[in-house]
Amino acid sequence: MISIKTPEQIENMRIAGRLTAQVLEALTEIVRPGITTMDLERFCEDYIINTMGAKPGSKGQYGYPYCVNTSVNHVICHGMPSEKQKLMPNDIVNVDITVIYNGFYGDSSKMFCIGEVPLFAKRLVDTTQQALYAGIAQVKPGATLGDIGHAIQTIAEKNGYSVVREYCGHGIGQKMHEDPQVLHYGQPGQGTKLEAGMTFTIEPMINQGKADVKHLQKAGWMIAVTKDRKLSAQWEHTILVTPTGHEVLTWRQDETGFLDKIM
């Protein structure tokens, strides 16, 4: 059953979303070559708890031991921080963060390019962000989940990329994962119709090569990687359906003007 949020719940989600965005904005200041993915984990946990007075949403969720997922290069999603994994020039990394405020979740992820990455890597990162925004642009009452998925799939495939199908966006609120599932592919007009008060994530995972996924087990956790070892990118936002369209609850300052350039 899809939850329609009350005005009070929406306000809590606005704050949770704003805090989530704030962590990613702060993280931008420390991401650099030579830093480990565990350094990113420690920074985010300290910032969430001690600077913002909030709670990390991912730690302990489904037994996951960390606050963030760090997915580097060919890792599609659910990458785990490690003391041994240093970010090197030419790497791309997705950092996925969830914050709880007053019992409500915000969820967002951002791609970071380490140093001067190759043009083909930057193109994948930028196209995936464009696909996310194309999906967001479809969100309004009366639209369907299929409209969102089709917009994302169109951008990805037009640029020669593939859309991961094993993972999707999700409803979010007082639980990290609620109904509905938000697929990143589909047909216009199909699927659940959107209503004001719905909140969900859109988080396309776009592969440079084929869409095939391989799973690696690490410390009881399943990490998704591209089967052909080519690059993968992901961006994520938490979205509210408003009476007249949509509101991006996890919008960051560094995104200002980007949508205007690519749409």
The overall pLDDT, averaged over residues, is 96
* Radius of gyration from CA coordinates: 17 Å
Q: How many helices?
A: 5
- As for the CATH topology, it is Creatine Amidinohydrolase
Number of domains: 1
Helix content: 25-40%
Strand content: 25-35%
Query: Pairing-aware structural class of the strands and helices?
Result: alpha+beta
Reading the helices and strands in chain order gives HHEEEEEHHEEEEEEEEEEH
CATH architecture name:
Alpha-Beta Complex
Low-confidence stretches: none
Biggest pleated-sheet summary:
4 strands, antiparallel
State the name of the first-level CATH class.
Alpha Beta
Structure description:
- With 263 residues, the chain is α+β, with helices and mostly antiparallel strands.
- It has one domain: Creatine Amidinohydrolase.
- Helix content is 28%, strand content 27%.
- It contains five helices and 15 strands.
- The chain has helices at residues 7-27, 37-51, 119-136, 145-158, 258-262, and strands spanning 55-56, 68-72, 75-77, 92-101, 104-113, 162-163, 169-171, 178-182, 199-202, 205-207, 213-218, 221-226, 232-234, 237-242, 245-248.
- The strands form five sheets. Strands 1, 2, 4 and 5 form a four-stranded antiparallel beta sheet that branches. A three-stranded antiparallel beta sheet has the order 3-12-11, with no helix packed on it.
- A hairpin with a 6-residue loop joins strand 7 and strand 8.
- Helix 1 packs across helix 2 and helix 3 packs antiparallel against helix 4.
- The longest helix has 21 residues, at 7-27.
